[in-house]
Amino acid sequence: MNSTIHNESQMEIALKQTKDKLINNSGAFLYLILMQMVGYFFAFNAGMSGGGTDEVFVSVRSISAIPLHVLTIAWILVMALNLAGEKSREYYLVSNNFTAYFSDIALIEIYSVIGGLTLVFAGPFLQVLGSLFFDNVHLHSDFGDVGIGNQLILFLISTVYLLMFGAAAYAFGILRTRFNLRFILGTIGTIAVLIAGSIIALRIGGPQLNFDPESLVGFYLFEHRPVIWLGKVVLTVAGLYGISYLGIRNLEVNE
Amino acid sequence: MKQLEGTEPIYIQIGDWLENEILSGRVKPEEKIYSQYKLSEIFGINPATALKGLNLLVEKGIVYKKRGLGMFVSSEALKLLKKERRGQVMTEQVRALVEEAKRLDVPIEELIKMIEKEMNKGGKRNDSMR
Amino acid sequence: MIRCDELTKYFNGTRALKKCSFEITEPTLTGVIGVNGAGKTTLFKSLAGFLKPTGGSAFVFNEPAFQNINVAQNVMLIEEGMQFYPKTSLYELIDSYQRFYKSYDVTLAQGLLNYFNLPGDAHYNQLSKGMASTFRLILALAARAPITLLDEPTTGMDPSVRKDVYELILKDYIKSPRMILISSHYLGEMEKILDQILLIDEGRVLEHGALEEFQHLFVAIKGSPELITPIEEKLHVFEGKDFGPGIRQIVVKREEFKNLHLWDEVKESITVNSISPEDSFIYLTRRKGGGIHELYDS
User: Fold this and answer.
1) Strands across the sheet with C14-24, in order?
2) Do chains C and B touch (3 or more CB pairs under 8 A)?
3) What does the alpha-carbon distance between residue A144 and residue A139 come to, in Å, rounded to a whole number?
4) Which of B76, B115, C54, C164 stands 20 to 30 A from B91 (CA)?
5) Which residue of A has its CA nearest to C99?
6) What pTM was computed for the model?
7) pLDDT by residue (tens digit) across C69-102?
8) Closest CA–CA distance from residue A117 to any residue of chain C (Å)
9) Distance (Å) from the C-alpha of residue B42 to the closest C-alpha of chain C?
């Protein structure tokens, strides 16, 4: 037989795949910029208040970076779901579940880092934009001293949150791909059970036992001890990726 | 590309074609015969099938292998082929001819006369084929 | 290098493959023949490592094929339902494949694109059915993968293109001998370039061997009805046809016919012919006996 048999390792292939996916998903970054532009637009419409006398009119406009964050999160959710949905197509190229998983996660990490970077620059960028249009631009007191150290922390935190959202969306996407109809039914079922469960719990336990969605966010957001926070986040991400791995492990290619 | 017809297996058709090439003198004794790849190219067939056809001739002794050089037509090829053809093909044709004659009510004497006439016509040609 | 041992695969309750066993160890151009739904695509996907056997095994290069990276990088599968990156040109797709399949011959791929008049800048989704088939084939052949699985590669192709395509496959096979398996529900022109046939029916491997062996399974016996009818009663007839009042033809298994030991006179009065491989597959896989003629004649 003339055709030589090749034996590249899984890692080599996984790295190749990562590069290949980056190249073929280059639209992702354009998409990010577009989303953020929308975010910037909404930043300037965060709130307005004003008043004054006949001679002087003062208006105070709030510029908020929150829309930007929200849209960046939306972006990574979409990117991660897309990656999870590509499983059928990509196996026709050299791939197996491990390399696909590895390259998908590598991509989500890269996207998170880039997303985090753009968010770090969002603050200063908004300040600059603001001063172009308005006379006096002040940073809210909550932000205090915005030094390099804070920027780094902001970058880290943004990246990590994006990573979490990405991991969650990916896990969701993989489970959906794997279990299809059963997954959709399962999700609806779980939601129904949760709602029913919380109603019953409320009836029995009284007002102390209320399920509060904000507490889920608070679990991470209000954690002030950095090591514990890091621990919580790392465990969440690891858990989500673990679920994804279990879902992808024996995935078959079949439409 | 040459066409192959009929329902006979391809390798048998190839064998027949090669025998005809030898009989007609297009490939002479001790000359190299078409290789499996050449046949593959001529007929658009799989080289393994072509090889099977060649091996039919090897089995009959019409063609032999020279190590590293390929397949050659043996010196007795023509003799063997004519003997075989006389046995098989001629018999078949005679049978078909006789059947047809019976069907058309042609008496045997008339049939022999027709054969003689045909033999004498191509007389000169016959001699050169021997 | 390809070995299936009682390979079985269930899908949503149907058994797509039932205890398939066969082995291929040499370079070959094997035709995998079967009616639609016989299990050919499932077999290919199992060999490519896409599907996990429900029972039995599919070994490629002596390792289980499912999710095996050695198999993935040395097996190339193309089929009609496969998808590619959207919004990517044909040239870019070839580029992608070239990065993953180490033996890829890009020059050949580009040359073939030109030969078949496929616009390299177009996107796969813009191609017609026939052009898409041609592209998939070019993509697969240029990869020069040791095991190349072509699932119904000529769907939607014009007859003239199909002819070229078979010539192309043969030429490339000779240039770079490897295991090429071509699946089809229709033998036709492909017959010439093959050296082996794997016949699949209802998920099972019916036969595996050289093309001639299939032909030799059956014979067509023609003669006067008085001679043929008594024979008919003794054998399983796959097809019976009347060519006018004086001639009847039946297709039976060669072995059974030989075992009849007919009188010499009878043998002289009937003609025995081989049948085409295409017909022999039809008889092997046909559900009801007899054929259309029975429906109309009775």
Assistant:
1) C14-24, C2-11, C55-60, C63-64
2) yes
3) 8
4) B76
5) A16
6) 0.83
7) 999 999 999 999 898 888 889 999 999 999 999 9
8) 28
9) 11
